[in-house]
Structures are given as C-alpha cells and as structure tokens.
Amino acid sequence: MARVSNRTFWWHYLCACLVLFCALGVPRAVQAQTWPSKPITLVLILAPGTGMDVIVRSYAERLSQALGRPVVVENKPGGSGLVAVNAVLGAPADGHTFLVATSGVFAINQTVFRKLTYDPLADFVPVSLYLKSPFILVVRPTLPVQSVSELVAYAKAHDGQLSYSSPGAATAPQLAVEMMKSHYNLDITHVPYKSTPQSVTDIVAGTVDLAFAEAGASFELIKSGKLRPLAVSSLTRLTSFNSIAPFAEVSDASDFEAVSWHVMAARADTPRPILQRMSDEMRRAVNSPELRERMVSFGLIPLDPPSIEDTQSYIRAEAGKWGTLVKRIGAAGTQ
Fold first, then answer.
1. Which of 8, 80, 84, 162 has the most CB within a 10 Å radius?
2. Residue range 135-232, CATH number
C-alpha cells in the first residue's frame, strides 16, 4: 500500500508541475512569439526638443517599420529620471514599454539618493547602449590659459578663486569637473544652474570661469570664439570637432573618461526573446548611416550596441566609478 501511495503522490506532483508550466511558461512563450501585438512606447527621461528626444524619434521611425507597429515616444522629464522610471515600472512587462535614460539613472542615482525606489540592474535589463555623450572642457576667453596643463597651473596659483558651472548638482558634467579636480587636487568652486544653456551662457558672460559643457550646447560658441575649448572628456575625438583632443591625450590622466550615455531598457521580467529581438532591431536601426550622421552632428559618439550582458558589465563599472567619486565629494545621500 505504501508503494501505491508513493506512486500516487508523485503522479499528482508531476501533474501539478505541468499545470503550473502551462499557466506560466506557455503564455510567456506565446507572448514572445506574437510580439509586438500593439503600439510600443518609448518613455524618455528628457523633455521634447532635446538631443535625446531628436535621436530617439529618429530611430523610433525605423523600429516602427521593422516591427510593423507604431513606436510612440513619450517624454516624462523630472525627478532625476524618476518620473520616467516609475512610469515604466508601472507598465506591464510585456515588451510594449521601454525606458530611454542616461548614466544618471543607471550609474549615479543609486549613490546620490538616500533611498532610491528602484534598482537599476535588478529592476531593468539594458536592451541597447547606443551612444556616448561627451563633454568639452571650455573656459571663458579672457582666462589666460590655452591648455589643460596651463589651466591646472593657473588653478593651483589661484587656489579657491576659480569657479565652474554645471546644469545641476551630481549631474555628469559636474562630476566630470570633480574628476579633474580630484586628479589634480584643485580647489574650484561649483556654481550649479537649472539647465545647460544657462550654465554655458554665464561662462561666455564671464560670471563663471569654466565647465565640462555638453558638446552640442557649446559647438557654436566655440566656433564664434565665445568659448575656448581645451579638451574633450571622451577617450576619442569628436568627428564633428576633430581639432579638440581628448583630456586623456593632453594630460597625465591617461585613463580619463567622463561621459554620459544613452541606453534603452526594459523591465527585468520581460520575456528574454522579446528583449533580444528589440536589441537586434536597435542595433540595425542605430547603425544606419543616416542616424549615425545625425548623432555626430549633435556632438555625440555613436556606438555599435554591445550585447545585453556586456552592457550590464559596463553599467556596473560605470556605477562603481561614479559612485566612488560621489562619495569622495560628499554628495552621497544628498537627495
């Protein structure tokens, strides 16, 4: 009797497992095969009209053609990206809602915020890392320096007298200057602004002395002689401004790289086949010559998107780098 009872138990156990598989596994497999079944929404952390917005709308058209469904761009700026993040986390994990964010959301916020409502790599899967956004070290034309070495020497000779601007505390442009300050042990006062245009305009006006400014926001001012460029924060030169050398090339900080980047991500529990399909389609879209040329025109560096796993490794490394710096300057847990 005991043997019959034992066999009956295992029979019911296997039936229960089969029912569970049918209830959970099969629908997700079918879901992946029929994806997309409705319009796809790309939720951006920045406002309409920004460089990110223009680039995203450009590849959204290509994705729509490839996937056979409308791809809608929805701007949700605010809260250091939290408005957009919460919108995506509140949507179903069915591959019809994606987040488009920067390094702030995925590599800086977790150290700056005392209590973050999301875990960048536990709650999201990065589908496509498709560009880097570098900064140009610029100074007011009346500052008597022509190179990085001269700036460092001048700052040391005028300890605590220079100032730099940024579009806000704990933003990537501010941290780029702090990285330079940390390397050379410089004392330069931070003057935060509410936007990039304001922060750059006040360098032209002579209100502040320098900044690592967004490339797209400073190109025309550099061309007109209203800003003097000293270096670019990426490890490679900008195609659209090839005369500006990388900071790492013109200083003794050979590994210096302080860039933002754009990444498309989805909820972590989105079916893997959907994530891989979108990753493949994004690679095709952003590698089109027309889109790469548009990125370059904005002072951005196009990337051939790495695999999902390589992107996760890159984000972990970036989070470690920026997190260490945020702690060093006393900005950890300040928001």
1. 84
2. 3.40.190.10
**Structure tokens belonging to residue 79:** 């809260």
Q: Could you tell me where in the chain the CATH 3.40.190.10 domains are found?
A: 135-232
Q: How far apart are CA 81 and CA 138, in angstroms?
A: 27
pLDDT digits (tens, 9 = 90+) for 162-176: 999 999 889 999 999
What would the pLDDT profile of 104-140 be if each residue is shown by its tens digit?
A: 999 999 999 999 999 999 999 999 999 999 999 999 9
Statement: 35-132+262-328 belongs to CATH 3.40.190.150: yes
**CB–CB of 229/222 below 8 Å?**
yes
The tokens of 71 are what? 């791809």
CA 173, CA 188: separation in Å to the nearest integer? 14
**How far apart (Å, rounded) are the C-alpha atoms in residues 320 and 114?**
17
> Which DSSP symbol is given to 238?
B
